[in-house]
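Exercise 3.2. Students should predict the tertiary structure of the chain below and write it as structure tokens, then compare their answer with the key that follows.

Predict this chain's 3D structure.
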Amino acid sequence: MNFRKATEQDVSSIIKMMADDILGKSRENFQTPLPIAYYNAFKKIDSDDNQELIVLENENLEIIGTLQLTFIQYLSYVGKSRAQIENVFIRKDKRGLGIGKTMFKWAINRAKEKNAHLIQLTSDKQRPRAIKFYENLGFKATHEGMKLHFE
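Answer key:
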């Protein structure tokens, strides 16, 4: 398996994985052609040095997973940064094979390489299996997260 930075040609595969998810079905718009908004968002992510949109390829060069790392600079912790991991998706036919654990180990090592002092994530409360998975990796629910959606 090979981790690499996503390219614009990968956007369709990434969105397809995101839309093929119980929660993603209601918030993503996978179609051919993809809405231009996805490509515009990709360009913003790709041009930001603090963002890393990553894909995981199998031996046949098929994209089987994706994640996004954001490095957030803080004044606290003596000016250290933290890594935020988001949008972790594994192709439906590859779930349950240990790929998620491999992806998280890679992300944790990448955060350490970039001198982040911690890696954090949020998970929808509707995903109890995912939350248990994160806890088994050593993540702790130390804060209460809140959101305010704009309509």
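Discussion points: The two ends are 40 Å apart (CA to CA). The chain has a mean pLDDT of 93.
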